[in-house]
Specification:
By secondary structure, the chain is mainly α. It is built from nine helices and two strands. 62% of the residues lie in helices and 7% in strands. Helix 4 crosses helix 8 and helix 5 packs antiparallel against helix 6.
Length: 239
Amino acid sequence: MFRDQAGIWTAPARLRGRKLLWLVPFATATTLAFVYDVRAMNALGPSPTRIRVSNDFTHLGSGYVLVPAAGLTYLIGKLDHKEGPRETGMLALESIADASLVVEALKLATNRQRPYVAPGTGKFWPDDSDVYTFSGSFPSGHAAATWAFARVMVEETPGHPWLHVALYGLATGVAIARVTGDNHFPSDALVGSVIGYSIGGYVYHHHSAFYEPKAKSVRIEPLYNPATASYGVSLSAHP
């Protein structure tokens, strides 16, 4: 896991070529989310019912749900002597742990106020700089853990598209519910989701015995034209 953390924290420095261009839409979306964070929360307004339902749903993205689910998958594989489920459970647990460590470090570094803390502006370091906390708003730990779990489960179960839709739907729902439940700002959920998805992919690509890099039949890549300073998208098919 310590090797994972070293690789995860230094991963941005290793981005090259077209992979680096993905930072443009991510940075743009994150900036817009930051700009409209408070406005979005004000637009939601107070609703005890919405907050209660949202918070009930986000229990699905809590460690006491995700960890047992991953552990049960591992146990099934272990008892049935099946390497697939055993590895899936182990990597899911690893991805949750890695995502949680990254999130806690960022929470400690940013110390952002939660939306429900008056005046609800989500300030970073609102108090004395000597006050450190792991309970800050940025980024969302639930979103990160759920997306990390979902990414590993999806990568480990090829050929099951409906399961993949359900897993990513769950992760998306948890991230949204953290906002509608008044626990996080939109930017918290967005960044947490990207962190979790990326870490889940990192863990799978570096530790799965079944991972084989191969050309995708359909590839979507960002493009940049220096002459016109314009961005675009490339779609290519490889039968």
